[in-house]
Write a structure and sequence with these properties.
By secondary structure, this protein is α/β, with parallel strands linked by helices. The chain contains 10 helices and 10 strands. β9 (220-224) and β10 form a beta hairpin. The longest helix is centred in the middle third of the chain and has 21 residues, at 116-136. It starts with a strand and ends with a helix. The structure holds adenosine-5'-diphosphate and magnesium ion.
């Protein structure tokens, strides 16, 4: 689905991504691991249109998507979540979900005046969708909670939920498990697997927790110093000499 070829992202003289090439197969849950500073988040940011690459290409289903802005990628079904959750803190969990889909009729004053009936219909459909998502993620009991009051793990679940409000094809998850307790991490893992199996989502997941990666991901891609160091099943990766060395430091 995604092919990254010889991608570079330089910040001044610093090569955060330094000639990375990789593929993400349709239907896979691909893991992306590597030591801190390896360039994983920067790679995500370039693929997801947050940063323009210095050079190199990104294609999606054969179409060149290099440097497209996030909203255009969003319409193609390419979504990302952030290492730091981006919720609207004073809105409820349910309202946060209802904020996601763009292009509602009620967005202009003109439409608001002339199409009141249709807006009510859309609102009702959105509400129903949000409740389905909350149910899927097993957090229906939190629907009226202000998002700012959620725990770190619950915010990550909400981020995942926001990807379910639209027709996503591929979702990039940056450290979904960071600072999340074991129980919630399992809930997040289960949601990812179910979205993959039942809704056909493709995932690319950055995560440090190797149990989580080992349970969910195949293949696993290892990055170090802006480059792809190795790729394979979780088991082969963990026995790879270069990978072990990259983690232990040189
Ligand atoms: P990872 O996610 O693998 O930990 P990052 O992609 O966040 O790594 O960062 C890779 C390197 O690029 C780090 O050394 C980081 O300091 C640097 N970097 C990331 N973003 C920027 C930026 N906007 N400006 C300058 N340097 C950056
Ligand atoms: Mg990172």
């Amino acid at each position: 689905m995604i092919r990254v070829e010889n991608l570079h992202k330089h910040f001044g003289g610093f090569h955060a991504v330094d000639g990375a090439s990789l593929e993400i197969a349709t239907g896979s849950i691909t893991g992306l691991i590597g030591p801190n500073g390896a360039g994983k988040s920067t790679l995500f940011n370039v693929i997801a249109g947050v940063h323009k690459p210095t050079s190199g290409t990104v294609t999606m289903d054969g179409e060149d998507i290099t440097g497209l802005p996030p909203h255009e990628l969003f319409h193609k079904g390419l979504l990302r979540t952030f290492q730091i959750a981006h919720e609207f803190p004073t809105m409820t969990v349910r309202e946060n979900l209802m904020m996601v889909p763009g292009g509602q009729t009620g967005e202009t004053l003109w439409n608001a005046w002339f199409q009141r009936g249709r807006i009510a219909e859309e609102e009702a459909a959105l509400l129903k969708k949000a409740d389905e998502v909350l149910d899927f993620l097993t957090i229906s009991h939190l629907k009226d909670e202000r998002a700012g009051n959620l725990s770190g793990g619950q915010k990550k679940l909400l981020e995942l939920g926001r990807t379910m409000m639209v027709e996503a094809k591929i979702v990039f998850l940056d450290e979904v498990g960071a600072g999340v307790n074991r129980t919630l991490l399992n809930t997040i893992g289960d949601a990812i697997v179910r979205l993959n199996q039942e809704r056909g989502y493709t995932f690319c997941v950055i995560e440090h927790d190797m149990d989580f990666i080992g349970r969910l991901c195949d293949p696993v891609i290892v990055m170090a110093e802006g480059k792809v160091l190795a790729e394979g099943s979780p088991d082969t990766i963990m026995q790879n000499e270069a990978v072990i060395e990259a983690y232990l430091g040189r």
